[in-house]
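Feature request, filed as a ticket because there's no other form

It would be nice if the structure record came with a short human-readable summary line next to the tokens. Right now we just get the raw output. Example of a typical job, pasted below so the devs can see what we mean:
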Amino acid sequence: LAERMACFTSSLNELGLSVSTGRVVDFIAREHLRQSPQQGTVPLIYPCHFQHGFINWPVESGKKPNAIVSSSETSDLFVEAGFYVLTKRFSSKEQQRRVMAAIYDPARIDARLVGFENHLNYFHKQGKGLPDNLAKGLALYLNSTIADQYFRLFSGHTQVNATDLRKMPYPTHEQLLRLGSYVKETIPDQETVDAIVEKECENCE
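Raw output as currently delivered:
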């Protein structure tokens, strides 16, 4: 595993990227939350909005709210719409993966701002969105078995915190763009993702 991961030599710093924890703590912001989007609200993204490697919003049938009121009290909880890569902060012991990533694609959600709930981490570039192909490549890499296995080497718990994600090695900018070219309407299935990342490792040898 260490030999294969040696192919990925970048850090988030070197890529000019950052990862942060979602700013919306729902029990603190409870009075501002709305089950359905309406005028004067901003999309609120939870782990339940992950679907096939992208964010599917709104999910009206779920228990979680889909929106948060935009006001002077909540304005510092939002980021500008753009391409973001989100990971779930919590998984159960039964789940096969610890690292689960999805892409927030601004073309799929008509909103100027977005709120990410505290159970998510989000990758960004100086607080704003990422270039689309870079975001797609990053999400594909994070959803690979090799990235998940590496994460488990240094993290024994079921939480995936921003600090842990900063410690991970990442593909170079060029590698991420190459990986991103394989992502179309959905992220490919696990077998295909692993084959794509494995091929990238072989190219390094």
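Something like this underneath would help us a lot:
The helical segments are 2-5, 12-15, 132-142, 145-154, 162-167, 173-180, 190-204.
The mean pLDDT is 94.
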